[in-house]
Amino acid sequence: MPEPLIKAENIKKYFPVKKGLIGGTEYVRAVDDVSLEIGEETITALVGESGSGKTTLGRIMAGIWMPTSGRVLYRGIDIHRDGMKREVRHRIQMIFQNPDSSLNPRMKILDILGEAITEAEPGIKKDELIERATKLLEEVNLHPDHLYKYPHELSGGEKQRVAIARAIALEPEFIVADEPVSALDISIRAQIINLLARIQREHGIAILYIAHDLRTVWNISDYVAVMYLGKIMEYGPTEEVFKNTGHPYTATLLSTAPLLPEEFRKHSLKPIGEPPSLINPPKGCRFHTRCPLAREECREVDMKLIEIGREHYTACPFWR
Amino acid sequence: MPLLEVRNLKVYYDLPQGTVKAVDGVSFSLEKGEILGVAGESGSGKSTLAHSIIGLVKPPGRVVDGEIIFEGRNLLELSEEELREIRGKDITMVFQDPNTYLNPVLRIGIQVGEVYEAHLGIEPRKAIDKVVDLLRKVRLTDPERRVESYPHELSGGMKQRVMISMAIALKPKLIILDEPTSALDVTIQAEIMELLMEMRDELGAAMIFISHDLELLGQVSDRLMIMYGGRLVEIGETEEIFRDPLHPYTEALINAIKYVRKEELPTLEGEPPSLLKPPPGCRFHPRCPKRMDRCSLVEPGEYMVGGRRVSCLLYEEEGDA
Ligand SMILES: Nc1ncnc2c1ncn2[C@@H]1O[C@H](COP(=O)(O)OP(=O)(O)OP(=O)(O)O)[C@@H](O)[C@H]1O
Ligand SMILES: Nc1ncnc2c1ncn2[C@@H]1O[C@H](COP(=O)(O)OP(=O)(O)OP(=O)(O)O)[C@@H](O)[C@H]1O
Ligand code: SF4
Ligand SMILES: [Mg+2]
Ligand SMILES: [Mg+2]
Q1: Could you identify the atom of ligand 2 that is nearest to the CA of residue B40?
Q2: B261 in contact with A at a CB cutoff of 8 Å?
Q3: Which pTM does this prediction carry?
Q4: B190: CA distance to ligand 5 center in Å?
Q5: Spatial separation of the C-alpha atoms in residues B75 and B189, rounded to whole Å
Q6: ipTM score here?
Q7: Which pLDDT tens digit goes with each residue over A71-114?
């Protein structure tokens, strides 16, 4: 396998929380020893239920948050050390779930895009800047009239298009897209996914696509990483993970999507009960308290990812 | 005789800008114990339809025309008194947002107990055992304590369980569910759905299940009705509609939930129609990929195709429904 573009190594992120009234500190282990590699020009989907640590890992891989330990290498450069170098910072961008909180409401679209454009090319002339901004809007199928509007004058889908335009203004090689369509109307989601897929192809960008919706994951991703309680349970090529599912947790996720094609369904399982706390996550396999197939060993043995196929890994030794 | 028969129902809202034809000539029927799914995008008239069946259309809205026949009686001709007897007992409703319905200053036990008072004349305090049993049935944890709680002390999922308990308390014949899970977290959604299906197996009540989540409706409904711009565009067996949608709008909805790999996802361009000034001819024609010249000129009737009723000029030859 060629050297990956982005490599996360043994990432941990523990958030301190106050313990009761007497004080003392406990830790939410949002991400707990995760390694993940993303190759050039590939889309890797990160899935898992609410609170599993997807956003936390995404922000760390985008260089927005520091990990508690571990490191993220971009072409061999540690993105968290000595501040992020400018050329690295430009190559890595993030798109958020809610465009309202990521676009400054007091800035016109021209200025929002202009900020990114001048960041890439300080001292650029005004008319050239407008030309570039117009081009960017064209790329995301927005009319140039929008340059002189404020975010609140745009629909949710249009705002997300602007966020995508801003992200590509810096010619990134890697974009973390954190649930970019979850906040949008169902009818608009497909349009934005199609746009992301086209931008990715045309610019040769690698994307970490964080999502709940298995339909869009199946549509655009090359690889899937499945997270549960801060750990990766399964990783592999998308078709492998859907069709030759390697982990009971993945199987339970697949069984929540009613219209899934039959070929994905052969392992459908129902999870037991509620997800446990991240402060004292279960020992052994993190999924054992909810796994319909759990055995005695699952409570004790720390599970490591094992290879079960080409580029396909699972943290369950007993499945299949 | 069907349990419910809605005939040519028209419900309009009179606004300063004009008349919004929110439900504009809709007919369908519902058998005992049947689940009818109602789908359609935002503003297509789903909630208005639901409110008119349960007699909750308020000004500026008004029922302009049609009949709503429930167990042989036209609900539109009943007195408020007679209606109140049916509403909350034989026909109940669960709303998307429990907060608009629950009284914030009344304890849960009293609110749920009121159902018994209104229809059986049991004082809320005396009904408390019944209420606890009921809350247990909808699997609200710790029901003995929960009767003392105020709505704000409950999570969204718990409040929806309370709403469901009120809806099933008196063993209704028809439950109308208007997006009962849309406001909830995905995992909670699944639990509430499970509960609803259990309740229906137990009660054998008919349901009108409104949602814009077609995938969900595909799982739970026997028949499906698709609305567009205040009109019914297609109605039939859920399975058949999923297998072979007839109306181009239905087809677009079904396509949008298919799994396709590494190719463009199908999209439906354009905006929902204005109900103040709906497009002439077929209301869907500005967005329809199969539109013909006639479509902007002639209003489609309703045609029977197999066991399905569909309102699209492509099926004009098939004969009126
Ligand atoms: N700044 C923070 N301080 C304390 N805890 C946090 C912080 N950010 C996240 N967490 C906790 O870390 C865990 C993982 O959160 P994260 O947002 O990464 O999950 P997620 O998988 O993205 O969930 P969702 O699907 O809901 O977006 C959660 O338990 C969350 O409450
Ligand atoms: N109280 C009201 N006053 C004025 N217009 C209303 C009122 N309630 C609904 N409408 C209008 O009637 C039309 C149908 O609305 P309705 O709420 O029935 O649609 P819906 O299909 O339930 O939509 P949603 O999926 O958003 O709930 C819309 O154009 C709406 O703006
Ligand atoms: S009547 Fe014409 S425009 Fe309307 S749905 Fe049928 S083909 Fe499309
Ligand atoms: Mg998140
Ligand atoms: Mg509604």
Answers
A1: 21
A2: yes
A3: 0.80
A4: 20
A5: 32
A6: 0.85
A7: 999 999 999 986 667 778 899 999 998 888 889 999 999 999 99
